[in-house]
Amino acid sequence: MTLDRVCKRFGGVVAANEVSFSLSPREVHGLIGPNGSGKTTVLNLISGVTEMDSGNIWLDGQLISKQPCHVRARGGVSRTFQHPRLLKRCDIQTNLYLGIDLANMKQKSMTSCGYTLSELLDAAGLSINMNDSITTLSYGQQKLFEIVRAILSHPKVILLDEPAAGLNSKEMERVVALIDCAVKGDAAVLLVEHSMDLVMSLCNGITVLNFGRPIAEGQPEEIQSNEAVIEAYLGRGRSA
Ligand SMILES: Nc1ncnc2c1ncn2[C@@H]1O[C@H](COP(=O)(O)OP(=O)(O)OP(=O)(O)O)[C@@H](O)[C@H]1O
Question: How remote is the CA of residue 37 from the centroid of ligand 1, in Å?
Answer without folding.
Answer: 7
